[in-house]
Specification:
The structure holds two protein chains of two kinds. By secondary structure, chain A is α+β, with helices and mostly antiparallel strands. Chain A has 13 helices and 15 strands. In chain A, about 30% of the residues are buried. Chain A is elongated, with a radius of gyration of 33 Å. By secondary structure, chain B is an alpha/beta fold. Chain B starts with a helix and ends with a helix. In chain B, the strands form two sheets. In chain B, strands 3, 4, 6, 7, 8, 9, 10, 11, 12 and 13 form a ten-stranded mixed β-sheet that branches. Chain B has a two-stranded antiparallel sheet with strand order 1-2. The radius of gyration of chain B is 18 Å and the shape is globular. Chain B has helices at about 1-20, 35-40, 60-75, 90-95, 100-105, 120-130, 150-165, 255-260; strands spanning about 30, 45, 50-55, 80-85, 95, 110-115, 140, 170-175, 185-190, 205-215, 220-230, 235, 245. In chain B, α6 (about 120-130) packs parallel to α7 (about 150-165). β10 (about 370-380) of chain A pairs antiparallel with β5 of chain B, so a sheet runs across the interface.
Chain lengths: ~450, ~260
C-alpha cells in the first residue's frame, strides 16, 4: 500500500500493513492502483500554480514542492503565515490535504513538513536518513532528536557517520544553506497584477496585459534594455495557469507592439482561453533582457521600412508559428538539398555567401526542389546513359534535350561506413518544353544492381 | 445627341471614379524589358496592382513561378524584401523554393521571406496583412488548387490594398481555372522549348506567356519570352513566325474567359 486517506487512518490502517491485512480489517476498503505518472503530473500542475507565490519553485518528488519565498512574503497581509494560509486554502479547495512548513532552509522546511514537529531541534534523528544500524547506534547513545546531535561537536559525528551526515545536519539546523534549483529559470523582469475579484472576460485580460506592458516598458527603458520573448501567465483562481508566449525579431520595449502581438496570439489559439471562474493574477515576464538603445531615425526612411517589415514578420510569426516564416540561408555542402537551408525569420540573419552563376550559362539549379525527391520510372540506357523517357505522376514525358550527368558523390567523409550512393544528375527538357532535374541514385553495377531514379526539382 | 454625349461622358467619369485607370494610380508602371511586349502592353504593367498568373497545366508550375519571379524582380522595389506566401499543400505538390535556383534566375535569396500557411484562409489572411505593408517590395501569393475562397471580393480587396500601399502583388495559381477576379492582368504561362545549347543541352529559361485579360482593355496576345538573367530583361523569341501572336488566344480552354473579359 502506497498511501491511505484520513478515513482509512481512522480505522487504524496505514504504515507497513499489507493490503490483505487491511482488507481483512475493513472489507469495504476502496483500493485504486498506484499511478506514479498521474501523481507526477498532479505535482507538476500544483507547482505550476505555485508560481504565483514565487518564481523559485522546485519539485521534491514524489510528494513535495519547495518554494523559496525569500522577499515574497510581504505581499501577503500576514506575511509568511498569510502566504502559508493562502496556499493551504487553495489546496483544500481541490480536496487536497497538505502539510506545510516554513523554515530558514529548504531541508529543514521539508523535514518539518514531513514530521510535523514544532521546531527543528525536536525532529527525530531518523530525518537524517542514515543507514539502519546508524540509527540504532544513535539511539543507544541516547541521542533521539536533532537537538541532542546539535549540542555535540561535529567532528566525532563526521568520523562515525561520514561528512554527508554532518553537512545535512548543518543544513537542517540552518547553519548552512544551499540554493534550490527552480523548475523554471526565474525571468529577468516580472510585472504582475492581482485581482481581489477574478476577471473572466478576454477583453479585461487584454486590457490588463496592456497596462502591464506599459509598466514593463517603463522599467525596461530605465534599464536601457529590451526583450525578444515575452511570457504572459494567467493564473486561474482554481490553480490552473495558462501561459502565452510571443517573440519579436528585434529586441523591443514597445508596449503597443506587445499589445498587438498578444491580441494576435490570443485570437490564433487553437483552443480558446478557458477562464473558468476567472483569473485572479495576471503576470507578464521577460525571460531574458538585452541592451536596447534609442534609435535615430534615418532621414530617407530606411529604418522605418525595416521596422515595418519586422512588425509584419512578428505579427505573422505570432499567428502562424515561428517556424512558418523562414529566410533562406546558403548551406556549405554540395549535396543539393543541403546547399539551401532555412531558418525562422524572427531570428537574426546570418551572413550568406551564395555561389554566383557564370554569365551566359543557363540555370543549372531548379527553382522548385522536392524534399524528399520523388521516385520516377525512367527508361534509360545502361550502364550510365541519359534518361529517354520517364513517368512522373502518371504522365509520360519524352526527353528531347538533356545535359549530364553531373556526378555528385555522397559525403563519404561524414559517414561511418565511408559509403553512400553517388548521384548522377541530368537536366532534361521534354518535348513540350518543361525542364526537370532528375538523378540516378547509385552507380549501375558497382553501387546498385538496379539504381532508382528520382525527380529532384522543376526548372521553368 | 448632345445630351447623349453628355450623359455618356458623365457616365465615363463615374466609372473612372469607381475604377481608376492603372496609370492614374500611385506607383507607376514597370516594363518587362522587351520592346515588342512592352508596346503591346501599352507602356508596361501597373506596379501597385494585382496580377494573376495561371500555370497552363500542373507541370507548368515551375514556368509560372519563374514568370511571377520575373515580374517581382522587374517591378518590385529592389531595396525591399519579397514575401512569398504559400499554402502548405503547394509546398508538398510542387516542392519548396530553392535558394541556389533563385540565384540562377538572378534573384538574391536574402531578399526573400517565405511564409507557409496551414490552409487556404490562413494563406489569404497572411497575404492580406502583407499587402497592406508598404515596406514589402513584392508579394507572391500561392494558394493551393482551385481556392474557392479567392473570389471576386477577395481579389478586389487585395487589388485595392495593393493600390493604396503600392505593393506589387502577384497571384500564382497552379491547378486552377480562371474565374471572376479584380486583377489588373491575367496571364497563362507554359514552359516552351528552349534554344538548345551545344550537344543539344537544354538552354536558357523560355516561357510561353499569354495575356488572357487586361482591365484597361489591352488586347490579349501570346509571346515566347526568354529570361536574360545577366541583364534582368525579357527577350521575345521569334521561332518560325511572328514573335507575338494576335489577339486570339491559342488555347480554346481560355476562350470563354477572353470573351467574358472583352
Amino acid at each position: 500500500m502506497v498511501a491511505v486517506d484520513h478515513r482509512a487512518q481512522a480505522f487504524g490502517i496505514g504504515g507497513d500493513m499489507t493490503f490483505a491485512d487491511a482488507r481483512a480489517r475493513v472489507p469495504e476498503l476502496a483500493a485504486f492502483p498506484h499511478d506514479e505518472r498521474a501523481d507526477a503530473t498532479l505535482l507538476d500542475w500544483l507547482a505550476e500554480g505555485c508560481d504565483r507565490y514565487t518564481p523559485m519553485v522546485a519539485l521534491e518528488p514524489p510528494y513535495g514542492i519547495i518554494l523559496d519565498i525569500t522577499g515574497c512574503a510581504h505581499l501577503f497581509a500576514k506575511g509568511e503565515t498569510g502566504l502559508q494560509n493562502d496556499l493551504v486554502d487553495r489546496l483544500a479547495r481541490h480536496g487536497l490535504t497538505s502539510r506545510t512548513a516554513i523554515a530558514s532552509t529548504a531541508d529543514a522546511a521539508l523535514a518539518l513538513a514531513q514530521y510535523g514537529a514544532e521546531g527543528v531541534r525536536d525532529l527525530p534523528v531518523t530525518v537524517m536518513r542514515l543507514p539502519h544500524d546508524a540509527h540504532s547506534a544513535l539511539r543507544r547513545a541516547g541521542l533521539y532528536t536533532l537537538g541532542d546531535l546539535a549540542d555535540r561537536p561535529s567532528a566525532p559525528l563526521a568520523a562515525r557517520f561520514g561528512e554527508k551526515a554532518t553537512a545535512l545536519l548543518a543544513r537542517l539546523l540552518g547553519k548552512e544553506d544551499i540554493r534550490i534549483t527552480p523548475r523554471r529559470v526565474p525571468p529577468a523582469l516580472v510585472v504582475d497584477q492581482h485581482f481581489a475579484e477574478p476577471i473572466a472576460r478576454e477583453e479585461d485580460v487584454l486590457n490588463t496585459l496592456d497596462s502591464l506592458a506599459a509598466d514593463m516598458a517603463v522599467q525596461l527603458s530605465e534599464r536601457g534594455a529590451g526583450g525578444r520573448r515575452f511570457e504572459a501567465s494567467l493564473f486561474r483562481s482554481d490553480g490552473h495557469v495558462a501561459r502565452l508566449f510571443i517573440e519579436t525579431s528585434a529586441p523591443t520595449r514597445d508596449a503597443p507592439l506587445l499589445n498587438r502581438l498578444f491580441r494576435e496570439r490570443i485570437s490564433s489559439l487553437s483552443d480558446p482561453l478557458d477562464p473558468g471562474f476567472g483569473y485572479d493574477l495576471v503576470r507578464l515576464a521577460v525571460p531574458v533582457i538585452g541592451p536596447l538603445t534609442l534609435q535615430q531615425l534615418q532621414l530617407e526612411g530606411g529604418s522605418v521600412a525595416e521596422a515595418e517589415i519586422a512588425a509584419l514578420i512578428d505579427r505573422l510569426a505570432v499567428r502562424l508559428g515561428r517556424h512558418r516564416l523562414r529566410r533562406l540561408s546558403a548551406g556549405d555542402s554540395h549535396i543539393p538539398e543541403q546547399a539551401s537551408l532555412s531558418f525562422p525569420a524572427v531570428e537574426a540573419a546570418p551572413p550568406n555567401h551564395w555561389p554566383q552563376p557564370e554569365t551566359g550559362e543557363p540555370a543549372l539549379r531548379p527553382l522548385y526542389l522536392f524534399d524528399p525527391p520523388q521516385r520516377i520510372i525512367v527508361m534509360a540506357e545502361v550502364p550510365d546513359g541519359p534518361p529517354r523517357q520517364f513517368r512522373w505522376r502518371r504522365a509520360m514525358h519524352d526527353v528531347s534535350r538533356f545535359e549530364g550527368p553531373e556526378r555528385i558523390a555522397a559525403e563519404w567523409w561524414k559517414r561511418r561506413n565511408m559509403r553512400g550512393l553517388t548521384r548522377d544528375y541530368f537536366r532534361v527538357e521534354d518535348v513540350r518544353g518543361r525542364r526537370f532535374w532528375l538523378f540516378r541514385h547509385g552507380l549501375y553495377g558497382s553501387e546498385q544492381v538496379n539504381p532508382d531514379w528520382y525527380l529532384h526539382g522543376l526548372f521553368a | 445627341m448632345i445630351r447623349l454625349t453628355h450623359s455618356l461622358s458623365a457616365l465615363r467619369q463615374r466609372v473612372a471614379l469607381i475604377n481608376p485607370a492603372p496609370a492614374a494610380k500611385a506607383g507607376g508602371m514597370f516594363l518587362l524589358g522587351d520592346d515588342m511586349v512592352d508596346a503591346r502592353l501599352g507602356g508596361g504593367l501597373g506596379r501597385a496592382a494585382l496580377h494573376e498568373i495561371f500555370a497552363g497545366q500542373e507541370e507548368d508550375a515551375g514556368a509560372a513561378a519563374v514568370f511571377a519571379l520575373i515580374l517581382a524582380l522587374r517591378g518590385g522595389n529592389a531595396t525591399k524584401p519579397i514575401l512569398w506566401v504559400r499554402d502548405d499543400r503547394v509546398e508538398r505538390s510542387v516542392g519548396q523554393i530553392y535558394g541556389p535556383g533563385l540565384v540562377e534566375l538572378g534573384a538574391d535569396p536574402d531578399r526573400f521571406v517565405m511564409v507557409t500557411a496551414p490552409d487556404e484562409l490562413a494563406t489569404l489572411r497572411a497575404a492580406g496583412d502583407s499587402v497592406k505593408c508598404g515596406a514589402v517590395g513584392a508579394l507572391v501569393i500561392e494558394p493551393y488548387g482551385k481556392a474557392r475562397t479567392l473570389d471576386l471580393t477577395a481579389t478586389r480587396r487585395l487589388a485595392l490594398a495593393a493600390a493604396s500601399s503600392g505593393v506589387l502583388t502577384l497571384l500564382l495559381r497552379v491547378g486552377a481555372e480562371p474565374s471572376a477576379s479584380a486583377a489588373q492582368t491575367r496571364w497563362s504561362v507554359c514552359a516552351a522549348s528552349s534554344e538548345p545549347l551545344a550537344a543539344n543541352a537544354p538552354g536558357i529559361v523560355t516561357l510561353n506567356v499569354n495575356l488572357l485579360r487586361h482591365r484597361s482593355g489591352v488586347a490579349g496576345f501570346e509571346a515566347c519570352l526568354e529570361w536574360n538573367r545577366d541583364q534582368q530583361i525579357c527577350v521575345s523569341q521569334t521561332r518560325g513566325g511572328a514573335a507575338l501572336s494576335g489577339g486570339i488566344p491559342s488555347s480554346a480552354f481560355f476562350g470563354t474567359d477572353q470573351a467574358k473579359a472583352a
